[in-house]
């Protein structure tokens, strides 16, 4: 069965604020099919000025706390970039990209459905590495 990629309607460049960006990232995350035991917090990291665009960087940090271990042994981060083009009209929607902390692959929310397994893999790899040390 073909998965429907869930996305949200992104704000326009002229209506963008750092806070609005973070709210919209939370809105996007709420469309992801992730078990409720996963908890995350998101934060704004920095604004980057480029020749052709302004980029706003955010991070969502994920963990699987349990009653026995309220502090997870490892966390997994997803990095988001919201891009505002200096060439497009300010009525155009912002562009959004994300990547996983362990990967250089950049994904677009409208082209790729997020998978919980990606978070599990990062955390499992970190735990394996920590146990080797």
Automatic annotation (TrEMBL):
Highest rank taxon of the organism: Eukaryota
GO MF annotation: an example: protein kinase A regulatory subunit binding
Pfam families reported for this sequence: AKAP28
A GO cellular-component term linked to this record: cAMP-dependent protein kinase complex
Cited PANTHER family: A-KINASE ANCHOR PROTEIN 14 (PTHR35075:SF1)
Name under which the protein is recorded: AKA14 protein
Organism whose genome encodes this protein: Peucedramus taeniatus (Olive warbler)
């Amino acid at each position: 069965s073909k998965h429907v990629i869930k996305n949200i309607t992104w704000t326009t460049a002229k209506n963008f604020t750092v806070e609005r960006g973070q709210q919209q990232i939370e809105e996007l995350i709420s469309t992801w099919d992730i078990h409720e035991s996963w908890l995350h917090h998101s934060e704004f990291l920095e604004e980057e000025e480029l020749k052709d665009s302004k980029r706003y960087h955010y991070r969502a940090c994920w963990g699987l706390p349990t009653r026995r271990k309220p502090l997870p042994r490892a966390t997994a981060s997803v990095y988001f970039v919201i891009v505002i083009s200096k060439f497009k009209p300010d009525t155009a929607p912002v562009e959004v990209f994300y990547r996983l902390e362990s990967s250089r692959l950049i994904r677009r929310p409208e082209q790729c459905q997020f998978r919980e397994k990606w978070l599990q893999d990062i955390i499992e790899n970190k735990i394996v590495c920590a146990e080797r040390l």
